[in-house]
């Protein structure tokens, strides 16, 4: 229970259906560290995982009449989510921490709790669906019916064991229907606004957070310093204030005057260099992904045709996914795609089903 309308409505729906519930909220980010603060040092409001959200979740559980507990995972969250997030930016990548948080922290922890309490399922407010395929003996991960809210992009790392326990009550519903269910149950969070930002960076200033985090850890020497901005031909065209302030596809904030718009096309951590170019230089037809998890089947022996997404807001495009062994694949699009970014997740779809996914890795320089 996040304290938001989705997980609260899911609880109300299950309660109405006659299920016996136990509610858990995860305390993930230690707000007392003072890293998510504004210029005056005041804590910045977050619409996810804040203390206010914990209070909202507790109130919903009380109103619906089932026991509620707070699970403190601050240490695990910092180790498994925040530290890799910082390390990825320092390595010139653009990470998406919500995937690892869902699969490696939230579901893993809740699965253990569910088993210890004798619970049959772990229910969440994700817009996704799970079906068991009798023919293959596998659990299928399917898109939520509301295409605008589908969250399977964040769930591709779930294992068959985790999917066997997963329950997504909102999978067949639209956002409007979910709010309607919350209103019908008279939940206090029925009109609560949605969370859009990364919970530990509520203002979206990732570079500022990284600077504060490194300072708090006594690792200021790891903070990226100033370096060159070069074009794709290697010619120096400007200076940057730290590679962690740039991501592939970025146009604003580069600080270079040019007759045509310039975009970040590569972040080279080894050389402490940002490479910029024209919009056409953002296009690429292929990339490599590592840490691949196949959901629909075991690792295939040959190439697989799929519709592939390279960012959460990216429309999938037809591609061939070729296994390379060792949890790696080579993805080749039928048509070049814009701003394929190392550190982001890629997900492979066939219709409404998630075939699998992986992590986009940096290509070696030519």
- What are the secondary-structure elements, in order, as H or E? HEHEHHEEEHEHHEEEEEEEEEE
What is the helix content?
A: 10-25%
Low-confidence stretches: none
CATH class of the largest domain: Alpha Beta
Using DSSP, what is the number of strands? 16
Radius of gyration: 22 Å
The class by helix and strand makeup works out as: alpha+beta
Count of helical segments?
Answer: 7
Query: Tell me, what's the shape?
Result: globular
The CATH architecture name of the largest domain reads: 3-Layer(aba) Sandwich
CATH-defined superfamily of the largest domain: HUPs
Percentage of β-strand residues: 25-35%
CATH topology of the largest domain: Rossmann fold
Overall mean pLDDT: 92
Note the main sheet.
Answer: 6 strands, antiparallel, barrel
Q: What's this entry about, in short?
A:
This protein is α+β, with helices and mostly antiparallel strands and 366 residues long. The protein folds into three domains: 5-184, Rossmann fold, CATH 3.40.50; 225-277, Roll (SH3 type barrels), CATH 2.30.30.280; 284-360, Elongation Factor Tu (Ef-tu), domain 3.
Write the layout of secondary structure elements.
Blueprint (H helix, E strand, L loop, with lengths): L4 H12 L6 E5 L23 H14 L3 E5 L1 H17 L6 H21 L4 E2 L4 E6 L4 E6 L16 H6 E2 L7 H10 L21 H11 L10 E5 L4 E5 L22 E6 L4 E5 L5 E12 L9 E6 L7 E9 L2 E11 L6 E6 L2 E8 L6
Parallel strand pairs: 1-2, 3-6, 7-10
Antiparallel strand pairs: 4-5, 7-8, 9-10, 11-14, 11-16, 12-13, 12-15, 13-14, 15-16
Helix pairs in contact: 1-2, 1-6, 3-4
């Amino acid at each position: 229970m996040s304290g938001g309308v989705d997980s609260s409505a899911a609880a109300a729906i299950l309660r109405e259906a006659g299920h016996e519930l136990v509610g858990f909220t995860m305390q993930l980010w230690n707000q007392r560290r003072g890293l998510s603060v504004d210029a005056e040092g005041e804590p910045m409001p977050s619409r996810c995982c804040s203390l206010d959200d914990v209070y909202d979740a507790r109130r919903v559980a009380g109103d619906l009449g089932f026991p509620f507990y707070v699970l403190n995972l601050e240490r695990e969250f910092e180790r498994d989510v925040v530290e890799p997030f910082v390390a990825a930016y320092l390595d010139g990548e653009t990470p998406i921490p919500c995937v690892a948080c869902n699969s490696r922290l939230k579901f893993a922890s809740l699965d253990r709790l569910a088993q210890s309490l004798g619970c049959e399922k772990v229910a969440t407010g994700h817009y996704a669906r799970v079906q068991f395929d009798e023919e293959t003996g596998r659990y299928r991960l399917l898109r939520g019916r509301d295409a605008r809210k589908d969250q399977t992009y964040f769930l591709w790392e779930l294992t068959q064991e985790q999917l066997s326990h997963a329950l997504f009550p909102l999978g067949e519903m639209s956002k409007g229907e979910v709010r309607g269910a919350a209103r019908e149950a008279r939940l206090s969070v029925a009109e609560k606004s949605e969370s859009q930002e990364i919970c530990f960076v509520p203002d979206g200033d990732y570079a500022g957070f990284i600077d504060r985090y490194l300072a708090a850890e006594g690792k200021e020497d790891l903070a990226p310093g100033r370096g060159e901005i070069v074009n794709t031909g290697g010619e120096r065209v400007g200076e940057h204030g730290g590679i962690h302030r740039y991501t592939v596809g970025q146009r604003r904030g580069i600080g270079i005057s040019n007759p045509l718009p310039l975009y970040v096309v590569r972040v080279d951590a080894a050389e402490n260099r940002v490479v910029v170019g024209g919009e056409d230089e953002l296009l690429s037809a292929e990339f490599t992904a590592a840490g691949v998890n196949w959901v629909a089947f075991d690792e295939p022996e040959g190439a697989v045709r799929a519709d592939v997404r390279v960012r959460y807001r990216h429309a999938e495009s037809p591609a061939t996914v070729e296994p390379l062994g060792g949890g790696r694949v080579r993805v080749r699009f039928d048509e070049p795609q814009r701003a394929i970014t190392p550190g982001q997740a890629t997900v492979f779809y066939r219709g409404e089903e998630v075939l699998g996914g992986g992590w986009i890795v940096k290509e070696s320089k030519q």
